[in-house]
């Protein structure tokens, strides 16, 4: 005989509601007894979804970043820079003028000009006169250089690379160089008469220069001719006549300028391990060139007011 409860069976929507209620109660008691499962199945998925929503809402700053001031003082101190004039007084007047600005206030770059853009607390200037130091080469170094006839070849004793790292004997790189301490606190070597490549390569891994030497300037000998014309005006006029083009002296001279080569007056050295080195040292030279031209026109001018940032 059936129980009296069977007379009240649930059907339809009520039956589905009772089933769902029973399932929820069952799941509640199961979850209550299994905390780890609750965290892994409920809490963590919710957190990851929220994290994904937050990440998708993040956007990079579309504003233009501030301009980066390019200068050679981003690295370790002191900063070693070198300059070299050609031997036998064979330098042009502009080269001498540019070289003199290195050891005159405001010295290198725009760090010490009146209207500098650099933070004076981070990049201070020395107000005292530029100090010059003559360094005597030791007898041991001179003997090593004489043994390889350095005065004639300008090639110092060779280094050894068999031990996976360059190892150089005494005298490698050449004799001791005199130097100036500039207003910008840099050590400016005078390498006149040095083989720049030999000095750079054989002293590259010296602890003294490691991450402290990233460039310099080598002035070229005064050229025999100020410029070389690959194509002259006479040839241009002949070409214009052959092609039935109207030939005028003004047009020919303008075209000839496009084929004129001016010999370089200076080589700007830089080490590309320093990311702004190339443009930073070019900027130093451009500032020196500007001040050199100004002093040629007026030797009493105050060049500390002039700079190119």
From TrEMBL:
Positions of transmembrane segments:
38-59
| Lineage: superkingdom | Eukaryota
User: Do the record's keywords include Transmembrane helix?
Assistant: yes
Keywords attached to this entry = Membrane, Transmembrane, Transmembrane helix
* Protein name as annotated: Uncharacterized protein
Protein species of origin: Rotaria magnacalcarata
